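Ops channel
N.P.: pipeline sanity check, posting one input/output pair.
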């Protein structure tokens, strides 16, 4: 699901294996907004751009709100502490025309 959420946009990705991830405080979404159109399945892969991080108000620091959700026996998602799980995830580096390259380390002259 993707659509307007408070001050910005949000996306929920159902991973299909009992896990979902929730991203909020986005300035814009790349996925089709499901709050405007008839909901339909959309698929993303690791490394796909799903949205752009925004700020709560103009001039404020941009930040992403991330939650990891796990489904219980009744198939209802509930947030869990993501830190133990993030340590095991593979990092996928992805750069496109809209994503600036990471800053290069400057070497200091002696």
């Amino acid at each position: 699901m993707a659509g307007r959420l408070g001050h910005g946009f949000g996306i929920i990705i159902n991973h299909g294996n009992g896990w979902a991830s929730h991203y909020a405080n986005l300035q814009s979404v790349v996925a089709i907004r499901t709050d405007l159109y008839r909901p339909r399945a959309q698929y993303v892969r690791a490394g796909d751009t799903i949205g752009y991080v925004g700020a709560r108000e103009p001039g404020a620091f941009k930040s992403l709100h991330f939650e990891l959700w796990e489904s219980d026996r009744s198939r209802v998602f509930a947030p869990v502490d993501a830190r133990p799980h993030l340590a095991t995830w593979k990092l996928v580096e992805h750069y496109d025309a809209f994503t600036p390259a990471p800053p290069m380390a400057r070497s200091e002259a002696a």
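N.P.: looks fine end to end. The chain has a mean pLDDT of 75.
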